User: What shape does this take?
Amino acid sequence: MGLQALRGTTDLLPDDLLRWSRVEHVARRLARLYGYQELRTPLIEDASLFLRSVGETTDIVQKEMFRFADRGGHEIVLRPEGTAAIVRAYLEHALHKTEGFVKWFYLGPMFRAERPQAGRYRQFHQYGVEAIGSSSAWVDVEVIVLCLAILRDCGVVKTTLWLSSMGCRDDQTQFAARLRLKLLPVRSKLCQTCQGRFDRNVFRVLDCKSPDCQAIVADLMASERGLRPGSFESLCESCLLHFDEVRQELRNAKIVFDDTKFFARGLDYYTRTVFEVRAEGLGAQDAVAAGGRYDHLVEDLGGPSVGAVGFAAGIERVLLAAGHQAQPLPAASRRGVYLAVTQSDLLGQGFQFLQQLRERGASGTMDYDSKSLKAQLREADKAHCRFVAILGASEMSQRAITLKDMEQGSQETIAFDAFVETLVQRTNASPSCH
Ligand code: HAM
Assistant: This one.
């Protein structure tokens, strides 16, 4: 068997990238509109960063990190998510001292050694935002509104927003104690992993995928309403106030949400607001975006005590959902020029024209292998070029080029002298071939 991409990883060929770039463009444009500036952090990080943030008992840290020792014996991981690394960058560059509040946007590959299936990959891509340095409920609202606006503009409109509050650390400690008490009688019926989780991080039991544990949790949630995270009984006064504010302002912003669903996030750093956006048509892996508040992470990683909130969306799932919801992103419109030369001794003249166009900012390409005109026209079509400029013996003798407009289906002849200027003018609005 020939060499293949690793399981759970995919090549993105130019046609795929046309759709990908649309999502990236929409996300970047809207993030900028809301005042979020782009940043990039490395793909590799010190393993301890994720142990201290995502949580030692989470599936991500226990089973899913690509972890290896470098030559110096340092434990390195391929980042499984963006938030922890972004907080690390915030602290490393002392932005808590110089800026205080930052609003950041990011985009890039993440890595988790999960069992690959539709919508779940080992290298996947997220775009997301993190607003670090504020505890205001308004920022939660802004982040959620932005998350939904990007999805909508990417064609993902059939979504459900699940909203909850995990409360503060004290709330979580009390909640965990009550949960342990209720689970104690059925502890031996939990799966092996959850029996271990019972003492170390009982919240993870709520997140367990084993059918036995899921049935126990469902029973418990049905009989003990107060045991739901986000319920009135599970939050202290100030967390309840914060959650009420978020809900009220979301309603004012005409955002529909469901705050009755129980869900557990797979990362330990959350406090207060948590949310997931589920998209219709995605099957089991239907969380297209998710996020929440992490008011202790900056402090836990050595910084001051400041609030923070953010979200991340999986680009693969955004594209899958947009496809299923019968609103696939339109292919990019036709752009640029394809220079078709019909005999090899005219390559030099053709190349000169092409260079003049490129120098003036009009994108173009040509065939260097003397293919037939028909084959070249096919290539121009595949490359989504707007114009085909034909240069053959008769064009040479008339010193004029035949220009086809592939979008309008029209054809005309343009004198050599006027060719570059005309094309520069016409391609001005659509400068790139790809
Ligand atoms: P997360 O829920 O682990 O949160 O991931 C966010 C999104 O990334 C998911 O909703 C999903 O669309 C996508 N995703 C996750 N794992 C995979 C996978 N194996 N294959 C394909 N897509 C996947 C976080 O990562 C947090 N950092 C979000 C956040 C930002 N919270 C606060 N700020």
